[in-house]
Amino acid sequence: MTTKQFYPIGTPGQPWTEREKHQWQQAQTRSRCYKNDVLDVLHQLKHRYALIQYGELSYGDDIYPLMAAKSKNWDDNIPVALITGGVHGYETSGVLGSLYFLSECQSEYAGKVNLLVVPCVSPWAYERIVRWNYDAVDPNRQFFPEGKAEESLALMALISPLRGRFVVHIDLHETTDTDESEFSPALAARDGAQYVPVSIPDGFYLVGDEQNSRHDFLNAIISAVAEVTHIAPSDNEGNLLGFPVVSPGVIEFDNNAFHICATITGTSLATTTEVYPDSAKTSPEECIRAQIVAIRQAIEFALSN
């Protein structure tokens, strides 16, 4: 009897050792440039924002400064809005959406809320268009003190002094066809588990926290985004990715149980966005615009509530 191997690295049913992790590292190819796409854009905006280097990654021969932009006229007497992108480096619209937001934003939030924007949490993964970091770890499962992703720990350290002051946090993500063709099979292979395929939601949706339901906040974002791109319909069981749809385009689960990025500020107005740029009904450009609209609506809701 033979066991079908769904991923070219490892032995079915056996978790990876350091040997397999090294094979995976060596198989990843740099396809784009973090410096050109992110750092240079931030540098062009330094006359409008204060740039902060909040950490540095050293992976193999590569060194990546971790950068954030914040309101130039920071006011300690007003609250803070956090925007994060690129926690999963391959999710392009989150990175570009946060950068485009910075470029488009003028002074409309001055005196109302401080902006703190981290466009690309995982630069090594961004360059290689992968989900994991260099150590084959998913940063979006590592946002807790004992987490094993340097990217996650560095971001937590950045925002730690500001906890209690965040009024909103929106974490920008997307789903692509490679979630099922590459990343889910790789995860099963790494963990020695069986790969079970799932259907990718076709459209924009949000992830809320079932321990802190804010349907008013999430529904406001969905209504705004629906003006620029389509909202993902639920499947035949009324779910998206196996989670019940609690309102159109919104799913919930216990965010803290998964240690995802949206938990780090402690604010009640926190969510994870998801778009599907591979859909025949949209385009990568439209998905970027959806992310920008989601950011703006999240901030506007926070300021008016």
UniProtKB/TrEMBL annotation:
<feature type="domain" description="Peptidase M14">
    <location>
        <begin position="30"/>
        <end position="305"/>
    </location>
</feature>
<dbReference type="InterPro" id="IPR000834">
    <property type="entry name" value="Peptidase_M14"/>
</dbReference>
<protein>
    <submittedName>
        <fullName>M14 family metallocarboxypeptidase</fullName>
    </submittedName>
</protein>
<comment type="similarity">
    <text>Belongs to the peptidase M14 family.</text>
</comment>
<feature type="active site" description="Proton donor/acceptor">
    <location>
        <position position="274"/>
    </location>
</feature>
